[in-house]
Design a protein that fits this description.
Length: 220
């Protein structure tokens, strides 16, 4: 509805035409706005439908039926626990108490004569050599306790004559400790041992010194 207020009668005809045109433009604008609002309502309805579908999908993924299907797959393909699998080799050792422990020369093998554990029987306590029967990646740990104040001792972990790690112990007014861990591949039948790298000749290795290792994982 257009409300028209007339003033001067001489201008009534022109004003009436202008007002009529304005009313038509307002009518067109109203129709355009109504169409736009209708389109927006349709968009909102569409988005709500998509949201409901998404919520339904999330619920389905966590439904009891999905968990039941998962349990069925586990029955067909049970997970393997490597700690209990019969085909996984078990190799580990730890030894202390070096038999020859004083005034050791260069490349003298440290024989850790007391085998605390020797799973797989690959450590030879009479020679100080670890000789595995399974190829794979192994973890080794060497700890040297030196009870010779003022003296020093350097040792090394050797694989078939190749130095894989080196350790330093000494330069203390009391007993000192040195060593470290190493991880590397060892073939079945290879020998790993600890030997003297250098010494000032006045060393005395304590019984607490140790040589340990275990199979991290075998070759596939």
């Amino acid at each position: 509805m257009c409300l028209v207020a007339f003033g001067n009668e001489g201008n009534n005809s022109a004003d009436a035409d202008d007002i009529q045109t304005l009313c038509q433009e307002m009518k067109i604008l109203k129709q355009t706005m109504e169409q736009k609002f209708l389109f927006q309502e349709e968009e909102i309805t569409h988005l709500k439908q998509k949201l409901n579908l998404s919520e339904t999908k999330i619920i389905d993924e966590n439904s009891p039926e999905r968990e039941k299907s998962r349990q069925g797959r586990l029955l067909l393909h049970p997970p393997v626990n490597s700690s209990t699998a019969e085909n996984v080799p078990k190799i580990a050792f730890s030894a202390n108490t070096v038999t020859d422990h004083v005034n050791l020369g260069v490349h003298h093998t440290l024989v850790f004569g007391n085998a605390i554990s020797n799973v797989g029987n690959c450590y030879h306590h009479s020679t100080g050599n670890f000789i595995p029967n399974v190829s794979g990646v192994y973890v080794f740990d060497v700890q040297i306790v030196l009870c010779s104040p003022g003296h020093e001792l350097r040792t090394e972990l050797v694989l078939e004559g190749k130095v894989m790690a080196a350790h330093y112990t000494g330069d203390s007014t009391h007993c000192s400790n040195g060593g470290g861990m190493a991880i590397f591949h060892v073939n079945a039948g290879d020998s790993v041992w600890v030997r003297v790298r250098s010494s000032d000749g006045g060393n005395g290795i304590a019984w607490e010194s140790s040589f340990s290792g275990f199979l991290l994982y075998p070759d596939s």
